[in-house]
Amino acid sequence: MTSMYRPLVHLQASVSSKKIHHGDRGCCRYCGTEDGRLFRQAAHLIPEALGNRWLFSVDECDLCNQQFSRYEDALASALGPLLTLGGVVGKGGRVRQTGRTAGSTVVSHDRVDGKRSLRIIARNDKDYRDRVTHDGEHIFFRTPLPETPFKPLFAYKALVKMALALMPTDELSDYCDMLQLLQNRDSSVASGSATVGLSFGSIGNAPSMVLASLLKRIDDTLLIPKFMVIVVVGSVCIQLFLWGDGYLQNGVAYGTPSLVFKAYFPNPGHQDFCIAYDHPHDLDWSSAVPQPQPLKEMVLKFHPGTTEGEFFPDWR
Ligand SMILES: [Zn+2]
Q1: What is the pTM assigned to this prediction?
Q2: Chain segment 28-69, per-residue pLDDT in tens
Q3: Rounded to the nearest whole angstrom, what is the distance from the C-alpha of residue 133 to the centroid of ligand 1?
Q4: How far is the CA of 60 from the centre of ligand 1 (A)?
Q5: Residue among 63, 281, 47 nearest 154 (CA)
Q6: CB half-sphere exposure, 52, CA atoms < 13 A
């Protein structure tokens, strides 16, 4: 997959990083306004609610920023449970919490002696027995997650917004359909043409990090999407393809890039930290009808003899 694409733009930041301001000042890349009074707010390239405190777009005007916030809310609802489990610090410096506080199972993230700790609390004995199983070797602890509703089409638009933020401005003329999709809240895409790949990486005491990468097709004669976009927020890796104008209406489903992705970032005084993401799970986010967030439950697979364990998601 990667040999068909070359990296064009790569932005990455974590706790010790300085702020990165991407784009050319003076003109909004989404609506074209050059009105200087409309560039007062700092526009986050990746939503702040997903934990981004470092990457900003200087060519996204305040009006577009306001319009896109609805899309970003939908994306944050969709990814909420994955971010909780990854301990991502969102807007206001708070770690998201998942679960119904009045319900029987709650997943929460705390900081104890400077280290993150994940707590899964099952309040009901019967529920607890149903959720713990074993295969003779491993113990499985399943944590159901709440069916938080989100609007898939809006979440998809939030991803398109990030993808277009990375694109060289001379390429944008081939993405009028996508720009229109962002400007018109009601505009939709054909069913099956908004495929998104989600994958989950290791959780634990990894520093907060974000990454946005745009890769371009090397050979234009190949019938593959021109661009591929990878966005990483902590424990979540998102992948999508971008074709050009015309493809959006055709409603042809092309699937997602299925790259098994590893992100490296500096860990001062230690070896670079690496998060290896699992194989992407394909989701169709073309629907404007709200649906439950994509994660059914998280499963902890634990070996009582070696005390080794791993977390993996169970998709709806
Ligand atoms: Zn604008």
Answers
A1: 0.84
A2: 999 999 999 999 999 999 999 998 999 999 999 999 999 999
A3: 52
A4: 5
A5: 47
A6: 26
